[in-house]
Amino acid sequence: MKKRVISAVLTAAMLTGSLMGSTMTVQAEESGVTIDFWHSMGGVNGQAMDYLVNKFNEENEYGITVNAQYQGEYDDTINKLKSAQIGNMGADLVQIYDIGTRFMIDSGWIVPMQELIDKAGYDVSQIEPNIAAYYSIDNQLYSMPFNSSTPILYYNKDMFAAAGVENVPASFNEIAEVADALTTEGGAGEAISLGIYGWFFEQLLCKQGLAYVDNGNGREGAATKVVFDENGGALNILNAWKELYDAGYAPNVGRGGDSGLADFSAGKSAMTLGSTASLKQILEDVNGKFEVGTAYFPSVSSENQGGVSIGGASLWALNNEDEAKQDATWKFVEFLVSPESQAYWNAQTGYFPITTAAHEEPVFQENIAQYPQFQTAIDQLHDSAPEYAGALMSVFPEARQIVETNIENMLNGVSSPEDAVAAMAEQINTSIEDYNLLNS
Predict the structure, then answer these.
(1) C-alpha to C-alpha distance for 358 and 353, rounded to whole angstroms
(2) Contacts of 15 (CB under 8 A, 6+ apart)
(3) Helix (H) or strand (E) run with residue 367 in it
């Protein structure tokens, strides 16, 4: 990839005591470099991001200034980036959600993070392998993981105790087995408040150890079609989901990853599914009304032996053909994934620390002691193998909407599980074909 060097001579000398022990020593000869960073962290997460950016700007020894700009939701950020490509990219580093990964790889707009890693001599074994696996193809890391999460099962320990349920369900069929006890003796209005969310559908495929799309789940080449209809994975999910719905155990609580959380926090449902990053918000909303338990994300059936895939977002270096800015971008990325930064980020947001050494930081250990429920997320991540990293697909945002619409139609009696799966496959395949045709 051709680069235009606009900085003067870059000096190299062994750097000791750097933010992450890197051997990268390039530094702009001029007084400093400013880089633009686009992100999608608002609210409490945005405050934590601002803290880290300000800390880097104040403490870095390279004269680098990071100009961080909140761009709105994940969709807003990637859409603005697409628009910016007509002229200038507008950013040097951008935070993109997990389902934008394949699009970014194919875009031609990026400098693969592996290039910056290799130049710096950074040790990638510091990164959680099951997180790095999602953003890697052929052992090349295309972006740097930053805010990563998995979904878990949240449950009301008080209701479980009242119902005499000692074992937390690990599958949809086990949820059905304890549902009556939870809604009678336990006093739950709903056994589980299960939001209609495409990410949950993807996780249920991973738990079966089955692919979403062809070409090695989109990792050996660009996907050309879905395979969840051919391997039976989608029908297994929809049949099990509909059984819970028809029995009154999992009513329709709406679309989206947070749609089931309100009923759970209000003490209406005995269980819900949600991101690990929702833990602190749930505990705050529950406010001691009952004890919150956490468990692994359930599988479709007890026989499933798969794992979970991560969600969240990663950091992408954009190719503005400016080597000085690329070097500055790496220094900032290196700071963000340092053990100290990641321990702080975890404590403030609930996202995983993507750097293993962050577990040794006092702030991480104090956070786990205060919120022991988060240990479930760590254990689940480590118990999942890299082969369950999940699919890569350029049209994932559209695919999620299609999946959610068809699950909703099934629950509303508009279609059968079989028809819903067929509609999902047909509609997503059309999106894939259109995308591949336009980008061939």
Answers:
(1) 6
(2) 22, 23, 24, 25
(3) helix 362-370
For residue 179, give the H/E element and its range: helix 172-183
pLDDT averaged per 10 residues, the chain (length 440): 32 34 40 91 94 98 96 91 71 96 92 97 95 94 96 98 98 98 97 97 97 96 96 98 98 94 97 94 95 98 92 95 94 98 95 96 96 94 90 95 98 98 98 90
Q: Are 179 and 247 in contact (CB under 8 A)?
A: yes
CA dihedral in degrees (268, 250, 409, 397; nearest 10)? 80
- Tell me how far apart the alpha carbons of residues 213 and 237 are, in angstroms, rounded to a whole number: 16
Residue type, 309: S
Nearest to 427 by CA among 199, 228, 231: 228
CA–CA separation, 16 and 336 (whole Å): 18
Strands 34-39 and 269-275: unpaired
Q: Report CA 39 to chain centroid distance, whole Å.
A: 14
Beta-carbon-side half-sphere exposure of residue 411 (alpha carbons within 13 Å)? 23
Which residues pair with residue 272 across a beta bridge? 154, 193
β-partners of residue 154 are 272, 294
Nearest to 18 by CA among 363, 326, 356, 334: 334
> Looking at residue 2, what DSSP letter applies?
-
Contacts for 389 with CB less than 8 Å, ≥ 6 apart? 130, 133, 134, 219, 309, 310
**Can you list the alpha helix ranges (DSSP code H) found in 184-322?**
198-208, 214-218, 233-246, 261-265, 279-286
DSSP 279: H
145, two tokens? 């993981």
Q: Is 231 left (phi over 0), alpha (psi -120 to 50) or beta?
A: alpha
Give the residue among 231, 232, 251 at the shortest CA–CA distance from 241: 251
User: With a threshold of 0.85, does the pTM exceed it?
Assistant: yes
